[in-house]
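Deliverable D4.2, example record:
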Amino acid sequence: MSAAFSITMAAPDPPENSRMKAVVIPVTPFQQNCTILGCEATGLGAVVDPGGELDRIMAAAEDAGFTLSKILLTHAHADHAAGAAALAARLGIPIEGPHRDDEFWIETLPQQCLMFGLPRATVFTPDRWLEHGDTVSFGAETLEVLHCPGHTPGHVVFFHRGQRLALVGDVLFKGSIGRTDFPRGDYDTLIRSIRERLFPLGDDVTFIPGHGPTSTFGEERRSNPFVGEGFSPRSDAG
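Output generated by the structure prediction step:
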């Protein structure tokens, strides 16, 4: 079991001296990076991709001093979404995301969990489906929503523009990219999502991937062997 780690992001001139803190808790046997985002101005938080181990997630939020007010989902693979319905019911909080094109993945959560040996999940309907260009908020913090399909058709990314932080789920990793061999995955679409929607946000953006260590868009643009400069997309890959 990997230990949680924290990232504190502060804008150059944050409103009312607010800062957003990110606490990353790797959960499930897949070591999926569940992230608690906390608004230090209000004490309210959001949890991104609670795939499982809900007691650990809730304890991490309490330790960080945040009251969870909503659940945000990047996509509906079981290691990211299997705990969403149970956590929402336990805390009485809404689920926002992913994009509606991942509805079929939510409907198969019980089968996914059985296939991968995870605790059984409950099928749910998000309180809000998300579209490209939407925003989500908790406390005094606001995140932009980018629809970035390819790994799954309804995958979204959450971006805090002022604090230069993105939560990219399984779209992009340090030195790698998301798989595209699952149902309705598409390699060319994934590459376009990264190059046309993520990299233009700026080289200075730090991102938290769905698995593994953080990186920056600049580092991946320069050196990622699957999508960096000098590497041409291949339609026969994935």
